Amino acid sequence: MDGCSGNGAPRAVVVGGGIGGLTAAVALVRRGWRVTVLERAAELKPVGSGIGLAPNAQRALDVIGLGDAIRALAAWQGEGGLRTPSGRWLSRTDPQAAAKAFGGPMVLLHRATLIDTLAAALPEGALRTGESAELADPGAADRPAVVRTADGDIEADLVVGADGINSALRKALFPAHPGTAYSGFTTWRVVVPGHGRPFAPHETWGPGRIWGTQPLKDGRVYAYAAARAPQGGQAPDGELAELHKLFGAWHDPIPAVLEAAEGVPVLRNDVHRIAEALPAYHRGRVALIGDAAHAMAPTLGQGGNQAIEDAIVLAHHADPYGGLATGLAHYSAERLPRTMGIVRKAERTARLNMLRNPAGIAVRNALISAVSALGPAVALRSFADIATWQPPVRTYADQARKQDTARRQETP
């Protein structure tokens, strides 16, 4: 059995090597923890898709010194906005106005780029791939948590459950919780080579369907789509053929993007959410982050952003030399209301943009156009409470200096 905190700094085990898990691992290392990340996949190789990082997530990454590297990947140039399938603009978004309102730009990048950036910030040997793990004991104030692996049990002062939407750690901590619920629609994601035709970044809302086309810094194009569908469905002729059927007649550049996707993997996933809040995001010495704690619909683009926030807030409260129980209680109290509020807001947005009733669509579109006509400040207001979030500390370097000063003052 691997040891606990008897050998130097206390030990944290992060279960899951996705965006939230790697961010937590880097943040905990910066705070003075010895960290091991257990990822069951043989390698960190995210399926091809993009992720949008809003200013709230960028400020969270500032805490661990990675925010500027991400901002440098911003590719949104010129106006974008919301369109109908015919191409008519319902609203236009000025990126400069958005950056001014939210304190920074929206950055769209490939998930693999973000994963590689985070993994590179970890100490050598901290990441163990091809390593499945289960929670044998959540631990308590008088005993460590225990994580079971094929290579033996690991004792830990802290375990971070970053194992995704079907989290085994969530089920172990809260077996009576109903888990996730199907949101009623499925999504597709694909990254294609640049097709050589300039376009304005946009999201398009049709009856029970949405499409988004966004440029990446390297010239590729990230496209995503969603449609109401029975749970567990698969396209009989392949997912690209299904996208052609659903969106091929929509406005430019959608047909060109679909043509460019020939031979490129198309990722399809049903959308699930945690509709009923967990009692807490921790139990014993285990804390849950990201989809394991609060899976949400992607309609606000905040799933990965909130996982990054979770990781930074958790590391802030998890003082390696302080009272962990109190710190985890503060983490739950701080994160649960915010994240579940965003879960509910994302679900309301999904109901709005996935409308199928023609009369309801006409009313919705008219309201969006009217709000857009009032100016960018009004149109951006609904997202402000999410994007203007501030982390609990500017950088961990600042926090470390303050703690060192406090300890020196306490020493006789």
What do these coordinates show?
The chain has 412 residues and is of the alpha/beta class. It has a domain at 11-77 and 107-180 and 275-352 and 378-410: 3-Layer(bba) Sandwich (FAD/NAD(P)-binding domain), CATH 3.50.50. It is 39% helix and 23% strand. It is built from 14 helices and 18 strands. The protein has helices spanning 19-31, 55-63, 67-71, 95-102, 111-120, 168-173, 239-247, 254-260, 291-294, 303-317, 324-353, 358-373, 376-387, 396-410, and strands at 11-15, 34-39, 50-53, 80-83, 89-93, 107-110, 127-129, 133-137, 145-149, 152-156, 158-161, 181-192, 202-206, 209-215, 221-228, 267-273, 282-283, 286-288. It has a 7-stranded mixed beta sheet with strand order 5-4-13-14-15-12-16, with helices on both faces. The chain has a 6-stranded mixed beta sheet with strand order 7-2-1-11-18-17. Strand 4 and strand 5 form a beta hairpin. Helix 10 packs antiparallel against helix 11 (324-353). The radius of gyration is 22 Å and the shape is globular. It starts with 10 loop residues before the first strand and ends with a helix.
Write the layout of secondary structure elements.
Blueprint: E1 11-15, H1 19-31, E2 34-39, E3 50-53, H2 55-63, H3 67-71, E4 80-83, E5 89-93, H4 95-102, E6 107-110, H5 111-120, E7 127-129, E8 133-137, E9 145-149, E10 152-156, E11 158-161, H6 168-173, E12 181-192, E13 202-206, E14 209-215, E15 221-228, H7 239-247, H8 254-260, E16 267-273, E17 282-283, E18 286-288, H9 291-294, H10 303-317, H11 324-353, H12 358-373, H13 376-387, H14 396-410
Parallel strand pairs: 1-2, 1-11, 2-7, 4-13, 11-18
Antiparallel strand pairs: 3-6, 4-5, 8-9, 9-10, 12-15, 12-16, 13-14, 14-15, 17-18
